[in-house]
Structures are given as structure tokens and as C-alpha cells.
Design goal:
The protein is an all-alpha fold. The chain is built from 12 helices and no strands. It is elongated, with a radius of gyration of 23 Å. The relative contact order is 0.13.
């Protein structure tokens, strides 16, 4: 009876040990399948015109980077399940940490190209461009510094700590770490600035439409998409700040929430881009337009697709309202 109890205790201990890694694997698999599906849809709805744009290439690169993150994180956690006594190499672990920490900065930086779509450098005064770009540029530079410090802290920990005490040092690196707290706080400020700029321009340019009897459904949809792309990452960032301030180990759920936050951010960007790509796909295949009208509508869609979730949609609001 004692041997049976010992065996059950051993199994239960093993299950409890691999449970966090198993949760990582399930989450990674689900979101990776979703990302791959969205990528296929984006390619199917893209046109030669849209594939030439910088924002399309940035979105494609972001998807590839997210899938690379999935592979590295899946390898690290899968190895911990099938062979707990022989974890992945230090290089793979550090690469997985880098692929988790840095991509959100890229996803948010795509917004800079959308700001240029909203305020074209050729027609916008340099002083105005400087006022618009200065804040997000400074925020992103600060985020690069704090993320680098955090990743360097992780690299130092895994290269100088024995395996049997690594979990304890990992908890020390996570709990109330000022670098990641600063990163998530700045991410909130970065996104809030971008969305505030968008909503302000939407309010200003939609005002004449409201005075004429209401806002077209297309503009309302643009508003909902942009709001959703801000609200969900905001909620996750606040949850992360709570986790890092109260939980002493990322294995308690904070580490999983970091991955979810990354996936939700890139999925929001992709869904917005697909929504605009769908509009262009329909227009270019099902409407017999004159050359002049085709040129005008493609210019409108170019401004819209180049933004995904930011303020650049507004560049064509006046044309868009007249064609809904």
C-alpha cells in the first residue's frame, strides 16, 4: 500500500510540475493556428497593389516573428515536459525570451508608418511631423532600453545559475521587476497616444457628416475596430502589471499572460488589415469602374489599408463617407 501511495504522490508531483508547461503548449498551439489562418486569409485577399505597401510587408514580418516565438516557446516548454532532466540549451532559452519580449515593440511600431499615412511627409510641415513623432519615438527608445536590460538580466541569470535553483532566481527576476513594469506602463501610454490621435481626427473629420444626418456605418466600423485594438491590449497590460506586482513567479500565470498579450496584439493588427483588404478585394474584382473612379477609390483604400488599427483610416474619411 505504501508503494502505491508513493507512486501516486510521484505522479501527482510530476503532473503539477509540468502543468504550467502544458498550459503554455495549449495556448501556443491555439493562437498559432489562429495566426496562420489569418495569414492565409490576408494573402488570399491581398492584391498586387496591397502587397507592394510597407504595411503589408510589416504585417507579414510580424506574423513570421510571432510564429517563430511560438516555435521557440513551444520547444522550451515541450522539452520540459518530455525530458524534464534535460532542458533546452541556454541559447535556445535566451532566444525564446528575446522573441517574447521584443516583438510587442515591433507590433506597436507599425503605427509609425500609419502616422506617415495620416500625415504625409511631403505635404506636412516638418514642425507638425516633429510634434507628432516625438512622443512615440521617445517612448519606443525607452522601451528598447528597458527590454534590453530585462533580457540581459534573464541571460545573466540562466548562464550563472545552477538548474536546481533556477526557478528561485527566475521568480526573483520576475517579481516586481522595474524593467518590465516600466515596459508595460510605456506600452499603455504608447497605445493610448496613438488611439487618442486617431479618435481626435475621427471626431474632427466626422463632424460635418453628423451635421448632415448621421455617421455612415463604415466610419462607425472603423471606430469600433480601432477601439477594440486598444481596449483588449490595455486590459491585458493592466492584468500583467497586477500579476508582476502580486505573483512571485511567472509560472503562476503571468508568463502565460505575456504570451496571450503578444498574440492578442498581433491578431488585432491582422484583423484590422484583413478588414481593409477585404474592401479593396471586393472593389477591384466586382465593380466596373472608370479609370478615374478606380484611381480615386484605390487611393482611398491605400490610405485605409496602410493603417490597420491606427489613425490613418481618417485620411480618406471624406471620400469614404460619400461612397458608403
Amino acid at each position: 500500500m505504501s508503494s502505491v501511495s508513493d507512486s501516486e504522490a510521484t505522479i501527482i508531483a510530476f503532473v503539477n510540475t509540468i502543468r504550467p508547461n502544458f498550459n503554455y503548449i495549449i495556448t501556443i498551439t491555439a493562437f498559432s493556428a489562429c495566426l496562420f489562418t489569418l495569414f492565409v486569409v490576408l494573402l488570399a485577399l491581398s492584391t498586387k497593389e496591397s502587397r507592394r505597401r510597407v504595411v503589408f510587408r510589416l504585417n507579414a514580418f510580424a506574423i513570421c516573428l510571432a510564429l517563430t516565438t511560438s516555435i521557440l516557446a513551444g520547444l522550451s516548454n515541450g522539452k520540459a515536459i518530455v525530458d524534464p532532466s534535460n532542458p533546452v540549451s541556454i541559447g535556445v532559452f535566451i532566444a525564446a525570451s528575446v522573441s517574447v519580449c521584443f516583438p510587442p515593440l515591433l507590433y506597436d511600431s507599425i503605427l509609425l508608418t500609419r502616422l506617415f499615412a495620416l500625415y504625409p511627409p511631403a505635404s506636412t510641415p516638418p514642425a507638425t511631423l516633429l510634434q507628432i513623432i516625438a512622443f512615440p519615438f521617445c517612448v519606443k527608445c525607452t522601451r528598447v532600453v528597458v527590454i534590453t536590460l530585462y533580457v540581459n538580466n534573464i541571460a545573466t541569470t540562466v548562464t550563472t545559475t545552477a538548474t536546481d535553483v533556477l526557478a528561485q532566481d527566475e521568480a526573483t527576476t520576475w517579481f516586481r521587476n522595474p524593467n518590465i513594469i516600466t515596459e508595460w506602463t510605456l506600452q499603455i501610454a504608447d497605445n493610448m497616444y496613438s488611439v487618442s490621435l486617431f479618435l481626435y481626427n475621427l471626431h474632427v473629420r466626422a463632424r460635418p457628416l453628423r451635421s448632415e444626418g448621421g455617421i455612415p456605418s463604415r466610419i462607425r466600423q472603423i471606430f469600433y475596430i480601432s477601439a477594440a485594438n486598444f481596449v483588449f491590449p490595455l486590459i491585458l497590460n493592466i492584468a500583467l502589471l497586477i500579476f508582476v506586482a502580486t505573483s512571485r513567479s511567472p509560472s503562476d500565470g503571468g508568463g502565460l499572460l505575456v504570451l496571450v498579450n503578444n498574440y492578442v496584439t498581433i491578431i488585432g493588427v491582422m484583423c484590422a488589415t484583413i478588414w481593409f483588404s477585404r474592401s479593396e478585394w471586393v472593389q477591384t474584382r466586382k465593380e466596373p469602374l472608370s479609370d478615374e473612379m478606380l484611381r480615386r477609390r484605390l487611393n482611398l483604400v491605400r490610405a485605409s489599408v496602410s493603417v490597420g488599427m491606427g489613425g490613418g483610416e481618417i485620411a480618406g474619411l471624406s471620400h469614404l463617407a460619400g461612397q458608403v
